[in-house]
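Researcher: Re-running this chain for the archive, since the previous output was lost when a drive failed. Same request as before.
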Amino acid sequence: MPKHLEALLTIAATALVVAFFASVSHWPKEWTERPIVPNVATLLGPSVLASVRPAPVLNLAFPDDIAVVVRRAGINGETGLIPTAASITTFRLLATGDLVSVAAPTGVDPVRRISNDAEPLLRVRGAYAVATTDRGNTVIRWTENGVTYEVSSRTLDVAGLAEVANKLR
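Model: Regenerated structure tokens:
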């Protein structure tokens, strides 16, 4: 582009901007008092979030007077600062020194009571729970608010683990 054409375009653009800002004070008052962006709340009516369920808590924890955190790792194995996704947290119980791991594992089916289930009813935090023991590790799983949780220990039996799990918050 030739230099004289570049200079002409620059002067024309500058003149246009100066004319615009000089004319603002002469605009009708109604134009300047209207909000540029309409009030979104009046467009949407009552709160859109009123009917939405709160996000589930993925990381349950024990009160400070019951257990302390020993280790925390992400579901995918990462350690350190954990993102907001679920993590596997290992606690040491203050009363006994036992280690208890708490997680919200992904890719597992929700725990539901089967009508012909002959096992005694096990409840954790008010929800139906299932206990298993595999290679010396006792695991209790339950589903509440659409999230399946799991608590496990190598030293506690089912009754002791269920009692401890009911203290989770």
